[in-house]
Structure formats: C-alpha cells, structure tokens
From TrEMBL:
<keyword id="KW-0808">Transferase</keyword>
<comment type="pathway">
    <text>Purine metabolism; AMP biosynthesis via salvage pathway; AMP from adenine: step 1/1.</text>
</comment>
<dbReference type="GO" id="GO:0006168">
    <property type="term" value="P:adenine salvage"/>
</dbReference>
<dbReference type="GO" id="GO:0003999">
    <property type="term" value="F:adenine phosphoribosyltransferase activity"/>
</dbReference>
<keyword id="KW-0328">Glycosyltransferase</keyword>
<comment type="similarity">
    <text>Belongs to the purine/pyrimidine phosphoribosyltransferase family.</text>
</comment>
<dbReference type="GO" id="GO:0006166">
    <property type="term" value="P:purine ribonucleoside salvage"/>
</dbReference>
<dbReference type="InterPro" id="IPR005764">
    <property type="entry name" value="Ade_phspho_trans"/>
</dbReference>
<dbReference type="GO" id="GO:0044209">
    <property type="term" value="P:AMP salvage"/>
</dbReference>
<dbReference type="GO" id="GO:0016208">
    <property type="term" value="F:AMP binding"/>
</dbReference>
<dbReference type="InterPro" id="IPR000836">
    <property type="entry name" value="PRTase_dom"/>
</dbReference>
<dbReference type="InterPro" id="IPR050054">
    <property type="entry name" value="UPRTase/APRTase"/>
</dbReference>
<dbReference type="InterPro" id="IPR029057">
    <property type="entry name" value="PRTase-like"/>
</dbReference>
<feature type="domain" description="Phosphoribosyltransferase">
    <location>
        <begin position="32"/>
        <end position="155"/>
    </location>
</feature>
<comment type="function">
    <text>Catalyzes a salvage reaction resulting in the formation of AMP, that is energically less costly than de novo synthesis.</text>
</comment>
<keyword id="KW-0660">Purine salvage</keyword>
<keyword id="KW-0963">Cytoplasm</keyword>
Amino acid sequence: MKKLEEYVRSIPDFPQEGIIFRDVTSVLEDADGMHLAIDTMQDLVKDLEFDVVVGAESRGFIFGAPIAYNLHKPFALIRKKGKLPCETVSQEYSLEYGTAVIEMHKTSIKPGQKVLIVDDLIATGGTTQAMISLVERLGGEVAGVLVLIELAGLKGREAIAGYRLDSAIVYEGK
C-alpha cells in the first residue's frame, strides 16, 4: 500500500516560481488515497473528545463530513460570505493579496460544545484563526484542528499556538 504522501501531487513553481503547490485533488481522485486520507485523519483524533465537526468551504467539507459521519457527530459549515441562508456570524481575515470573509450560522454551535475544526491544509494559519474566532464567538470550545497537509515553513502552527493541531502530512517548506 502506498503512503499518504505518495497520493499528493506536487507541482513546482505554481502559483509562482519557487513555490511547490501541494495538490489534494490527486488524493481525492484515487479511491485508495481518499480512503487513506480520511482514515489517517480520523485516527489522529481518536483520543480527542468533541461534540461537533466544523469544516470550511470547500475542502474542509470534503474531509470533515466523512469524519463526522463515521463518528456520528453533527457537521457544521463555514462558508464564504453570502452563501448561508439564515442568520450568521462572520469573520474577516487576511489573505496574501487582500482580505476575505467567512460565515457560519449562529445556530451551528451551541455554547459549551467542543469543536473539531477540519480543513485540507494549514499554511499561514489565517483561515484557521478566523474559523477558531467564529467557533469561540458562538460559545464553542475548540478541542482541536485537524488538517490533511501542514506547510510548516509558513508557520501556521505558530499562528494558532495554544490550540491542538494534528496534521496527516507535514511538509517542511512552503
């Protein structure tokens, strides 16, 4: 059986020279790769107590929903601004070239619930910090953050210091 890292396609010099883009679509396009990714991620948090899984649009949905399903937990969505139909709470955060806003329904997290945040990747930690802020503003407690890929050279782990971060794959560079 292949290692999980072997399913990730690495594309040099994208989106700019000197960057190695870690493409998770190659994991998803292989049934064994996707199965291994979900199982590996889920195994990383087997000791963690949480009530609800939260995932960010769109790849957080892909990895978070099956974990929630397997563990019989509810799954709450974090989406781009303007995509959710009910009353929301929003959080602006910085991107490399500008800002973005994410939202979740105000009813997604109940005060005191322990939350597992799931995403495909952590780089600088900006999106993850915004997700943590949304959960905490709704009264939730972040039990942990779970990602398929961590780009350690971009220091996302440091940006969310004080929160548990589990990564299925860690790349030392950017």
